[in-house]
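User: Reviewer 2 asked us to show a designed sequence for the structure in our supplementary figure. I'm pasting the structure tokens here. Could you produce the per-position amino acids so we can include them in the response letter?
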């Protein structure tokens, strides 16, 4: 436990050097949970109060929720049920708010993905329509070309037979 405590404290010091209140609040919550697990409630209370204060100052509901949960557990163990109940209510309120925010975000992502799928499907249908029009145009051009070729062959054949008949008639007239 001493080694883990050292790492937690080292992490806290590094975050204090960076002066990141959010990260300091997270470290304090981690230390508070560590001290609760080893039964050092006074140390845990100190770190949870610090985390609560910082999280409240920077308006970070996630860290505030974690600190309120820790303070609820500590005050309950101390027998201070009035404070315990207050922090429990705050914890539940923040949990519900974060849960609802998460649901709203997931729903928004779902809506956007549905719109994206609809747009993708619309584009695919448009592409298929364009391909069908292109294929129809190719077929039409092939029919025109083939009709022209057949017409030319028929016309050439007619000219050939007329010319041949003319030659035969000329030979027979001589």
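Assistant: Here is a per-position design you can include in the supplement:
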């Amino acid at each position: 436990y001493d080694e883990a405590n050292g790492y937690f404290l080292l992490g806290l010091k590094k975050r204090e050097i960076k002066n990141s209140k959010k990260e300091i609040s997270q470290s304090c919550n981690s230390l508070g949970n560590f001290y609760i697990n080893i039964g050092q409630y006074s140390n845990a209370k100190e770190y949870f109060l610090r985390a609560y204060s910082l999280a409240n100052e920077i308006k970070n509901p996630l860290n505030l929720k974690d600190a309120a949960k820790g303070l609820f557990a500590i005050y309950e163990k101390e027998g201070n049920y009035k404070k315990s109940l207050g922090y429990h209510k705050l914890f539940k309120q923040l949990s519900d708010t974060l849960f609802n925010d998460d649901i709203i975000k997931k729903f928004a992502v779902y809506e956007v993905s549905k719109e994206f799928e609809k747009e993708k499907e619309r584009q695919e249908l448009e592409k298929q329509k364009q391909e069908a029009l292109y294929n129809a145009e190719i077929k039409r051009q092939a029919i025109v070309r083939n009709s022209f070729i057949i017409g030319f062959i028929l016309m050439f054949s007619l000219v050939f037979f007329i010319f041949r008949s003319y030659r035969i008639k000329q030979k027979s007239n001589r």
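For the response letter, you might also mention the following. The CA atoms of residues 51 and 115 lie 41 Å apart. The radius of gyration is 42 Å.
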